[in-house]
Amino acid sequence: MKATETLHRAGQSLWLDNITRTLLTSGALRRYIEELSITGLTSNPTIFDHAIRNGTAYDAAIRQRLAGGRSGESLFFEIALEDLTQAADLFRPIHERTAGVDGWVSLEVSPLLVHDTRATLAEAKELHARAARANLFIKIPGTAEGLPAIEAAIFAGVPVNVTLLFSPEQYVAAAAAYLRGIERRIEAGLNPDVGSVASLFVSRWDVAVAGKVPAALSNTLGLAIGASAYRAYAELITSPRWLRAFNAGARPQRLLFASTGTKDPKASDIMYVKGLVGPLTVNTMPEGTLRAFADHGELGAPLRADGGDSEKVLAELRRAGIDIGALAARLQDEGAAAFVASWNDLLGVIASKSSSLQKTG
Question: Which of 10, 65, 114, 222 is deepest in the core (most CB within 10 A)?
Answer without folding.
Answer: 222
